[in-house]
């Protein structure tokens, strides 16, 4: 089934009844870093923290009275589940969500809080999908696919209309790809309104399913990624054909770059973003020469990041910037030696976070000891100055790098 601009305009009219447009904001500091004029579409500000509400709403509004009474079913481990549950409950439609058995409890709890009935089944999303179809057939429920549905694609495509209305001179759109619903819808809208616009898709390096599928190459996806929202092993059938026709290229980004993008969006733009939501910015940071001099738009498509993952990324970002470092310092194994080093580090402007005092496991003389000190510093130059001062005072010191 083909999807055109008029389908997306009809979807936009439906969306407008319930959802206000999200802001499209300039990002001047990120623009400086990437050599672009960059704009961010903040879908992370939606009630459920994701763009998925758009497609879910359009699909739910399409149901006739009998279908609405009977209810809907979806399979999802995250944002689609919440979008369907929230709007179905709001519209008085019973919603069942099938999630893999090992879905984190916080996601299950959040989906239930939006009014969805959660069924846990299988080890993977594929298992959950098979089970969901079986339940749909048995109970007469309407299946709401997360991406491979014309109405879902049209709903997501409304983002493209809003972005070009907000910034008509966009040269390039950089859009995350999971199953492909988001980029397919945006591509239909954007290419119809502005045929010369470039559209670049972004996948996680560990899950290159769309890129490999379109290249007629074997698809191999595995591993833990912080961009779990786009960690899709089997892209949509409808979406892949739209992407084949309308998307100019697909790039892959690694885990370190995704981490850097999340960290940069928090520190530079003050936006809390999940891994999938940061994928477009990751592509820009990874290869700025590709986009230099262009007016670029990307979708911050979700903000639902686990608090523990976020805390880890923030600390690792500080380590990469050498604002938190680990120094190994040699000192005599004598009373008061540790206190002298601590005083020295304080006088040098470092703030001690942790100290590990080793006499037995490091290769040092019996009357010496090594201490590993985790230290807060101002910047790399401050670290170099502290190490130089320690060595000049007779304390052998070296920087221990923990994060690449």
From TrEMBL:
Its cofactor is pyridoxal 5'-phosphate. Pfam families: ACT, PALP. Gene3D superfamilies: 3.40.50.1100. Belongs to the serine/threonine dehydratase family. It catalyses: L-serine = pyruvate + NH4(+). GO terms for molecular function: L-serine ammonia-lyase activity; pyridoxal phosphate binding; threonine deaminase activity. It is an enzyme of class 4 (lyase). It comes from Skermanella stibiiresistens SB22. It comes from the Bacteria. Keywords: Lyase, Pyridoxal phosphate. GO terms for biological process: isoleucine biosynthetic process; L-serine catabolic process; L-threonine catabolic process. Its EC number is 4.3.1.19. PROSITE patterns: ACT. This is Threonine dehydratase. Residues 326-404 form the ACT domain. InterPro entries: ACT-like_dom_sf, ACT_dom, ACT_ThrD-II-like, Ser/Thr_Dehydratase, Thr_deHydtase_catblc, TrpB-like_PALP, TrpB-like_PALP_sf. SUPFAM superfamilies: ACT-like, Tryptophan synthase beta subunit-like PLP-dependent enzymes.
């Amino acid at each position: 089934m083909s999807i055109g601009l008029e389908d997306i305009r009809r979807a936009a009219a439906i969306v407008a009844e319930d959802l206000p447009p999200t802001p499209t904001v300039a990002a001047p500091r990120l623009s400086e870093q990437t050599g672009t004029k960059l704009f961010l579409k903040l879908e992370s500000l939606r009630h459920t923290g994701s763009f998925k509400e758009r497609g879910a709403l359009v699909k739910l509004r399409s149901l006739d009275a009998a279908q609405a009474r009977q209810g809907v079913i979806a399979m999802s481990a995250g944002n689609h589940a919440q979008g369907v549950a929230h709007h179905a409950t709001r519209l008085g439609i019973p919603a069942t969500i099938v999630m893999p058995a090992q879905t984190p409890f916080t996601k299950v709890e959040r989906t239930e809080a939006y009014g969805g009935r959660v069924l846990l089944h299988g080890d993977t999303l594929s298992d959950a999908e098979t089970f969901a179809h079986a339940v749909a057939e048995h109970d007469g429920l309407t299946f709401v696919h997360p991406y491979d549905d014309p109405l879902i694609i049209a709903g997501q495509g409304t983002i493209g209309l809003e972005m070009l209305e907000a910034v008509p001179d966009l040269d390039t759109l950089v859009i995350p790809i999971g199953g492909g619903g988001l980029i397919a819808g945006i591509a239909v809208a954007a290419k119809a309104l502005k045929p010369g616009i470039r559209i670049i898709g972004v996948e996680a390096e560990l899950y290159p399913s769309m890129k490999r599928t379109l290249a007629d190459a074997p698809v191999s996806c595995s591993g833990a990624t912080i961009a779990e929202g786009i960690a899709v092993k089997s892209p949509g059938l409808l979406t892949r054909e739209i992407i084949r026709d309308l998307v100019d290229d697909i790039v892959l980004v690694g885990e370190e770059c995704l981490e850097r993008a999340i960290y940069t969006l928090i520190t530079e733009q003050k936006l809390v973003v999940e891994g999938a939501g940061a994928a477009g910015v990751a592509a820009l940071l990874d290869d700025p020469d590709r986009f230099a001099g262009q007016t670029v738009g990307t979708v911050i498509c979700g903000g639902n990041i686990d608090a523990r993952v976020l805390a880890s990324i923030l600390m690792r970002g500080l380590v990469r910037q050498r604002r938190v470092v680990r120094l190994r310092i040699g000192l005599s194994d004598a009373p008061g030696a540790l206190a002298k080093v601590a005083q020295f580090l304080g006088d040098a402007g470092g703030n001690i976070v942790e100290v590990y005092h080793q006499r037995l496991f490091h290769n040092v003389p019996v009357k010496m000891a090594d201490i590993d000190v985790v230290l807060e510093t101002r910047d790399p130059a401050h670290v170099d100055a502290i190490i130089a001062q320690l060595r000049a005072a007779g304390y052998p010191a070296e920087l221990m790098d923990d994060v690449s």
